[in-house]
Design brief:
It contains four helices and eight strands, in the order βααβββββββαα. The protein is an alpha+beta fold and about 150 residues long.
């Protein structure tokens, strides 16, 4: 067995936790930002069964060569708007992702993504940079939504 690690990403968004939670759990939102830069995630490639034990799957398509990568997970905890947990059993060791949404009571929400049982391949600087671009895409998408709402 290979060693696994942990990763934590923190971002602060100018949006309420309910909106951020819904963006992370609604296929119509997910298709707009899910995946690193250079990929798209078509709506028909997203499965969200939002309940503990329910499926969470996304199929990302590489814009350059059309290759696909499917992330398959099962929700372990669903607590709108504070907490979302899923486990990717396909990933060696069962990588667990916990996303917490903390209302800062000033129009902003802190979103912390904490991953445990992260395989070595996902711990590389390149993999972390790729994941950060997906967080950037989420941030830009949410900023657009909140601008629309005035």
């Amino acid at each position: 067995m290979t060693a696994t690690g942990e990763l934590t990403y923190r971002r602060i968004h100018r949006a309420p936790p309910e909106l951020l939670f819904d963006c992370m759990t609604t296929p119509e939102h997910l298709t707009r930002f899910w995946g690193p830069t250079g990929t798209t995630t078509p709506l028909d490639g997203i499965v969200v069964d939002l309940r503990p034990g329910g499926a969470f799957e996304t199929t990302m398509v590489n814009d350059a060569d059309g290759s696909t990568y499917t992330m398959r997970a099962v929700y372990a905890e669903v607590r709108r708007p504070d907490r979302l947990v899923w486990v990717e059993a396909d990933v060696e060791g069962g990588m667990r992702t916990t996303v917490t949404f903390t209302d800062l009571h000033d129009g902003r929400t802190e979103v912390v993504t904490h991953q445990t049982n992260v395989p070595a391949a996902y711990l590389s600087a390149a993999a972390q940079a790729g994941f950060a671009t997906s967080l950037d895409r989420f941030e830009a998408y949410v900023a657009g939504l909140t601008a629309e709402r005035g």
